[in-house]
Amino acid sequence: MRARGIPHPSSLIPHPSVPRLRVNITWGSLTNMKTNQLQSVLVVSTGLSVFLTLAMIPRDEPVTLPKAFLDGTGTGWRALGGDDFVNVNCDESTWTWNEGLVYCTGSPVGVTRSKKPYTNFELVVRWRHLRSAGNSGVFLWASESSLNALKRDALPEGIEVQVLDHGYAELYEEKTGKKPDWFTTHGDVFPTGNAKMKPFAPTSPDGRRSFPSKNLSKGVQEWNHYYIRAINGEVRLWVNGEEVSGGSGCEPRTGYLCLESEGSPVEFRQLRIRELP
């Protein structure tokens, strides 16, 4: 399979409108040139090379920009494991931690939270749903008061970065006969409960959710990559290497990280964090 953005060898033929130029420069002629003459030749040759290279790029293939796949390694980054989390309102069997892999049964609805609160940080997590129409999420800045009062089959207040399978939208349309307009399956970010956030555009019709600017999430059984940056009450989400959604003016802007269980099996891995000033 050819990598996206890399033209097929057969397409690397100059466009008919590009003249075929030939530059004959011998070693002898170069050695006899003065410095300023030699510089001019090199500049012209380099410019010609760049021009011909650009001319050989197919016009119908857009340039693909590099993606920001942060792996959560380097100075200040550390892994998060089972010892960093505590069950809140799920069964003890809901969450299983095994050598960097987190398995969630999806039952009951609830969360496991970090043992310590965080304020400014970067977070990397990979996730995949094991069943079509799966629903889950990563909570940022979940308030201590809502977690302490949380009952079974309930979720805390905070900022949710949604983890939703495409089958959820398909099931919604099948049941209602309408296409969903109040959620997407590509990385919505929104406040829950009494939490507040000013979402980045585009937004849901009620103006509460930040919808992703691109549809980049992969489907059931495929691993997705989230990079989340939460600083001074602002959240930004990158899905599979590209920034897509977020919001500012978040309240609360400090609190606990939570992983969500909501009705379907899901796995997380490579959960890593870097705290910031």
Sequence-ordered SSE layout with sheet pairings:
Layout: H1 27-31, H2 35-55, E1 77-79, E2 85-87, E3 95-98, E4 101-104, E5 110-114, E6 121-129, E7 135-142, H3 144-148, E8 158-164, H4 166-176, E9 189-192, E10 196-199, E11 224-231, E12 234-239, E13 242-251, E14 256-261, E15 266-275
Antiparallel strand pairs: 1-15, 2-5, 3-4, 4-15, 5-14, 6-11, 6-15, 7-8, 7-14, 8-9, 10-13, 11-12, 12-13
Keywords:
disordered N terminus, 277 residues, 33% strand, Jelly Rolls, alpha+beta, single chain, nine-stranded antiparallel β-sheet, 15 strands
Question: How would you describe this structure to a colleague?
Answer:
The chain is α+β, with helices and mostly antiparallel strands and 277 residues long. The chain is 15% helix and 33% strand. The chain contains four helices and 15 strands. The longest helix has 21 residues, at 35-55. The chain is globular and about 45 Å long.
What is the count of β-strands?
A: 15
Q: What series of H and E elements makes up the topology?
A: HHEEEEEEEHEHEEEEEEE
Instruction: State the CATH superfamily name of the largest domain.
Output: Exo-inulinase, domain 1
**Total domains, how many?**
2
Per DSSP, what share of the residues sits in E-state strands of 2 or more residues? Answer: 25-35%
Structure summarized in a few sentences:
A hairpin with a 2-residue loop joins strand 12 and strand 13 (242-251).
